[in-house]
């Protein structure tokens, strides 16, 4: 397989260790990964702000940059969802249709394409799993409480493969953190309150680390945790899955 790695802008700028962990994890699992240096953004920030027509050149650049790869893997459910669901407004060439099908969140690629059943990883900590909205309800990486399905999420399945991890039981396991991209800017008070509610749930469960498949949600929670002086850390799931045994 010819695999390309797409690193979202906020990971590139603020959390490069997540991109490195994703690359190392894929390589440990036998993948040869390409990193097109011309990549920029998927266009989600502009679209979420109501400027989707202005994002079209960014969409077209993404297609040009990643055409020719069998899969594009990204450590971001929200970016994967945006490419798959919002690139419907540009001309549906063969390349566009291919990328709309083959741009995958990391957890999807690991479970659905590589069929991973075991990971050589160890992370001895009590971990709280945050189910980001785009991954949970957009990509259907988990059942969501409103669907009344008794099935583990993709992230829970992967965490269960890591030696030493204790996955905390949360009271409201699939509730939004309040980030929502530009929602956190336009409605800061509501956004902060939602984030504090999520942190309180994790704190009640005694977690040491909060993890998720979207670093944007974790960035929001990390800011609130720092302001509270909380010892709880945040780590993208790629960092945990890549921790050597």
From TrEMBL:
Coiled coil: none annotated. InterPro entries: Cys_rich_dom. GO terms for molecular function: oxidoreductase activity. One of its GO terms (cellular component) is cytosol. Residues 3-83, 127-221 form the Cysteine-rich domain. This is Fe-S oxidoreductase.
């Amino acid at each position: 397989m010819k695999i390309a790695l797409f690193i979202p802008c906020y990971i590139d700028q603020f959390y490069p260790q997540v991109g490195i962990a994703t690359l190392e994890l894929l390589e440990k699992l036998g993948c040869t990964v390409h990193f097109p240096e011309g990549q920029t953004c998927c266009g989600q920030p502009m679209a979420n702000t109501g400027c989707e027509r202005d994002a079209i050149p960014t969409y077209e650049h993404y297609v040009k940059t990643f055409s020719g790869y069998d899969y594009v893997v990204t450590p971001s459910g929200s970016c994967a969802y945006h490419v798959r669901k919002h690139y419907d407004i540009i001309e549906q060439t063969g390349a566009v249709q291919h990328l709309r099908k083959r741009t995958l969140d990391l957890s999807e690629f690991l479970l659905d394409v590589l069929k991973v059943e075991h990971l050589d990883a160890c992370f001895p900590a009590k971990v709280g799993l945050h189910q980001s909205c785009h991954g949970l309800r957009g990509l259907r990486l988990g059942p969501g409480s409103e669907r009344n399905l008794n099935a583990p999420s993709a992230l829970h399945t992967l965490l269960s493969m890591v030696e030493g991890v204790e996955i905390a039981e949360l009271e409201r396991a699939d509730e939004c953190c309040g980030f929502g991209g530009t929602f956190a800017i336009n409605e800061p008070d509501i956004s902060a309150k939602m984030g504090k509610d999520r942190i309180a749930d994790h704190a009640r469960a005694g977690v040491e680390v909060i993890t998720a498949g979207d670093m944007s949600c974790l960035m929001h929670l990390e800011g609130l945790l720092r302001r509270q002086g909380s010892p709880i850390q945040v780590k993208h799931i790629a960092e945990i899955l890549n921790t050597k045994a």
